[in-house]
C-alpha cells in the first residue's frame, strides 16, 4: 500500500511496504521502503531503498509519508509505520540519514499523518491494531515537526 507526496525539489517520494521472503527471514515481514521520482508514472518497478534509521531501526508495515516545509531549507519528510510508535524523519528529500523520533501516538494499522496549516505541526491519528480487537479506539496526537 503506497503513499506518495510532493517534495519542494519537484520530486515525489513514495513509501510502501515490501514483503520479505519467509524462507530467508523465517516469517513474513513488511519492511518500509521508499523511492523518489520526478513523474508519478515513472516509479520504476525496481525495488526502492529500505528505510533504516541512523540508529539501525527498521520500520515495518503500514507506511504513510508526508512532507512539511518546516525544519530547514529542504523541509522534512515524515514516515510512520504500523508496528512502532515512533516516526521517522529525513531532511534531505530522502537522501542521507533518517532519524527515529519518539511520538506520543501509539501503534496502529496505517496511522494517518497530516501536516497542519501551521507546517511546524504534525497530526498523527490511529484507529486500532491488527488483528482487530474490542479495544480499538480512534486516537489523535498533534506534535511539533522534529527539528523545528
UniProtKB/TrEMBL annotation:
The entry's keywords: Hydrolase
This protein's record includes keyword Hydrolase: yes
GO molecular function terms listed in the Swiss-Prot or TrEMBL record: hydrolase activity
Top-rank lineage group of the source organism: Eukaryota
Keyword Hydrolase: yes
Name the record gives this protein: Glycoside hydrolase family 93 protein
Species this chain originates from: Sporormia fimetaria CBS 119925
